[in-house]
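Practice record 12: protein with zinc ion.
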Amino acid sequence: MFVHAHPDDETIATGATMAHYAAAGALVTLVTCTAGEEGEIHVPSLAGLAAAEADQLGGYRVSELHAACAALGVTDHRFLGGAGRYRDSGMMGLDTNKHPRAFWGADLEAAAGQLLEIIREVRPQVVVTYDDNGFYGHPDHIQAHRVTMRAAELAADEGIAPAKIYWSTIPRSVMEAGMAHFAGSSDNPFAEIEHVDDLPFGTPDDEIAAEIDGTDHADAKLAAVRAHATQIPPTSWLFSIAGNFGGEFVGMEHYTLAVGRKGPGSGKYGWETDLFAGLDLDGDAA
Ligand SMILES: CC(=O)N[C@H]1[C@@H](O[C@@H]2[C@H](O)[C@H](O)[C@@H](O)[C@H](O)[C@H]2O)O[C@H](CO)[C@@H](O)[C@@H]1O
Ligand SMILES: [Zn+2]
């Protein structure tokens, strides 16, 4: 079960992993916490849908999300609390954070209870969300983390806690390789960044628990990225890096392990290659 804040996060952060497990026959459940109402619009003909205009972007992004799920082979998608329950809060500190339905202002117990209802039904062995900074500090990402971790506590009280909880991330080494590769390029997505430590995200390689090789699904992930056209323009850094690094970047996704016992791994840091590593078919520690 993947818990994400906005339509597009599922693809950007975990699209290849979701496609990998969907193709392998696992039940992949995606829970999206908001409809992304406060997003930018990179499709000029849709500018009138913006929050400050017709305020219809959320509904449109639902269609983008469905197209992305189809590209990834994900068939079980839910909105936390039902479609429209929680609204995209906008970037940290904006007045939109105070909207009556802003996810950032959601009652934690109520939202966690809504996620617990899905956990009771789906009984996920593995859950994936963000770290306590929401990966890069967006209020809805931070709230998605808090709601997920609280729901897992409530599930544990009922004896149905997931065996493992992972937080999506990017290894510091991948960021450094990207910066080195694009140094001097006119199309440098890292142009504003002097040092990798200046980025609001990135995890030291020795703190990574799992690397999922979804390179066989890199094309599906890029199709899902294209489905989120209002958020990710053709000029996006994602396409720049994908064009240069291809499946090596797009298809490889990384996670830290927040809850549970790390299974067998390989390589310099013993990274797992499977989120179910160390679990038996019932999702119990083998
Ligand atoms: C990937 C992600 O979480 N996107 C969010 C984010 O989008 C950013 C926002 O529009 C910001 O104003 C831009 O400068 C930045 O480039 C975007 O990534 O926040 C949006 C508003 O909450 C959200 O809709 C979008 O999904
Ligand atoms: Zn997001």
